[in-house]
Design goal:
Structural class: mainly alpha
Number of helices: 4
Oligomer: single chain
Distance between the termini: 45 Å
Keywords: Membrane, Transmembrane, Transmembrane helix
Largest sheet: none
Helix content: over 70%
Order of helices and strands: HHHH
Radius of gyration: 19 Å
């Protein structure tokens, strides 16, 4: 009985962790045609890279393109 109870509790905790921590990749969002979410993710990544080093334009665009390519 206790093993079943512990398994159910562990399953619930694991499900909650995955539900709140996992995110869809750009590829999956593209397949489901969720363009707004893709634009939001890419703009957030661009903003992070630009904030880190605003004067480094070439490396900034290369890093964004690399991020998009790796996620696809």
């Amino acid at each position: 009985f206790y093993y079943g109870l512990y398994s159910a509790i562990a399953y619930t905790i694991g499900f909650a962790l995955v539900y709140y921590c996992a995110r869809d990749s750009i590829c999956h969002l593209n397949i489901r045609n969720e363009v707004e979410d893709i634009e939001k993710i890419i703009s957030e990544e661009e903003q992070i890279l630009y904030t880190e080093n605003p004067k480094d334009g070439r490396n900034y665009h290369t890093a964004v393109a690399k991020k998009i390519f790796e996620d696809l």
